[in-house]
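Dear all,

This email documents one entry for the complex benchmark we are building for the journal club exercise. For each entry we list the sequence lines for every component of the assembly. Then comes the predicted three-dimensional structure of the complex as a token string, followed by one or two observations. Please use this as the template for your own entries, and keep the labels exactly as they appear.
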Amino acid sequence: MTYQVKSTVEDTDLVEKRRGQIVTAATKLFATNGFFRTTIKDIAGLAGISQGLIYQYVTDKEDVLLLVLLDVLDGYARELPAAFEGIADPFGRAIAAIRAYARVVDRRRKATILAYRSTQSLSENRRAIIQNRELETNQILGTLLSECLTEGVIRAVNVDILTYQIVMMAHSWALKHWYFKSRFTLEQYVEHNLDLLFHGVLTETGKARWEGLRKPLLP
Amino acid sequence: MTYQVKSTVEDTDLVEKRRGQIVTAATKLFATNGFFRTTIKDIAGLAGISQGLIYQYVTDKEDVLLLVLLDVLDGYARELPAAFEGIADPFGRAIAAIRAYARVVDRRRKATILAYRSTQSLSENRRAIIQNRELETNQILGTLLSECLTEGVIRAVNVDILTYQIVMMAHSWALKHWYFKSRFTLEQYVEHNLDLLFHGVLTETGKARWEGLRKPLLP
DNA sequence: CCATCCTGATTGAACGACCGCTCATATTCG
DNA sequence: CGAATATGAGCGGTCGTTCAATCAGGATGG
């Protein structure tokens, strides 16, 4: 939780508070103007502190980006489990989680896009931290889906692929919002995708035809 | 094809040639270092021309980015139709197109990521040009899928949603390559996704259960 | 209870480096 | 020779980062 980001200030509460200010301001600015167009001065101004002070709580401008991205991913990991904790049945849990995931992405649409835009601007090791955090979140979904599989409600598909299909379905709502927003509500978007995902698109004729065109599934 | 990017040079062939050099160099540099970390000097150096000359063929650094992104999208639009032109049967055409699309994305993986990273760095109107071009490419796939629908090989799903599912499946191969590369080959990835897409994931039990959990599909 | 001191937090001016873009000049070629 | 094309030094501006100076507030001692 307290990240491997160094600070010269000892007082933990103060560090928490100041970083909170910095991250809140930086998220807003990065999301609208991008990482490179945002200056430390901008961040300091919006956070209500001086430029110099930021460097007591962070070593780099890149560190600010790391803190922002970690905060976004933490948001996912925090809000997801709450959505299905009351539900006993695995399939119900999975569906609640998927719908919740889409809602979380929708609420943080700009921040989600920011993650795609700027994770690559991080140095190798900082990027690895972010990717690991993403995997942890996806693991939550992956586990739920595995349980559906053992329950016999979904067939023996590759869970990794399935998980990423769902994750990308949610992310795409943010990434392609410029297209979807005038055509679907979030709920319509999600339910159409679930319908596709669960039933598939082929008719009986189609399924027969596909048998002649498919390639073997190896792993 | 010749874009709404201004040049002070008259000779059309020369413009084509110089822009080719510039775009090739810039694509390489943008893809590895990002738009903002790449300098005009870098581009000029790799293209084998002087900094000043770039501004005879382009008004802005942003213009270079626009040319690069248009080139990537043109690549899609050019290579896709070739993949299915010999095939008569709509379903076969659609499948050939999907597989080809994934291969094109794979070949231009870094450039595809670049598009996601930096389209937002463009000014409003230049971004609109890019988004339009993307829609045109997707339209190729959309048409193929509509034909499958009238052929009765796929059921009456929303073609917009289906198209974007497939597009994002291909893009995800690039976006999440850091995850997939150690787990699947491109072909495995695609075939698993097609299997999911075509047959759906639910078992018969699952389908019955889903009836109680689904929400109505409006549009 | 106040004056003094000290430590850690905070400020913002300034440094140094960088970079997009221009323009006076050079080169090329018909 | 002259028009079109090409060069690259340099201008003007920006921005990340540092650091000497200031401030706050608690401890100390009279």
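Observations: The first helix of chain A runs from residue 12 to 33. Chain A touches chain B through 64 residues (CB under 8 Å).
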